[in-house]
Amino acid sequence: MLLHLLEERICAGRPILATTQYSGKGMDAQFERPEMGQAIRRRLNEFCRVVTIRQVLEPRGVVSFQPAAIR
C-alpha cells in the first residue's frame, strides 16, 4: 500500500514528505517482506531529497533543530 501511494504521487508529480527514524536495512526490516522495504527505500532515494536534521542545544536549555545535510 505504501509503495502504491509513492508510485501514484511520483507519477502525478505530487510532493512527498516522509519522516522516519530508520535508515537502510533498519527500514527494510519494518516490513513483512524485506524486498518491499527495499523497493520503498529505492523510490524515496530516487525521487526525494534527503534532509538530515540534527538537534542543537542552545543557551538557556532551548532545543532547536537545524538541517545537518541535504543531498
Describe this structure in words.
This protein is 41% helix and 21% strand. The chain has 71 residues and is an alpha+beta fold. It has a two-stranded antiparallel ribbon with strand order 1-2. β1 (51-57) and β2 form a beta hairpin. The model has no long low-confidence stretch (mean pLDDT 81).
Indicate the topology.
Layout: H1 2-12, H2 25-28, H3 34-47, E1 51-57, E2 63-70
Antiparallel strand pairs: 1-2
Distance between the termini: 27 Å
The proportion of residues in beta strands is: 15-25%
Question: How much is the average pLDDT?
Answer: 81
Query: What is the share of helical residues?
Result: 40-55%
Please state the structural category.
alpha+beta
Kindly state the number of beta strands: 2
Unreliable runs: none
Helix run count: 3
Major β-sheet profile: 2 strands, antiparallel
Give helix and strand order, one letter per element, not per position.
HHHEE
Strand order of the largest sheet: 1-2
Radius of gyration: 15 Å
- Large-scale geometry: elongated
What would you say about this model in short?
The protein has 71 residues and is an alpha+beta fold. The chain contains three helices and two strands, in the order αααββ.
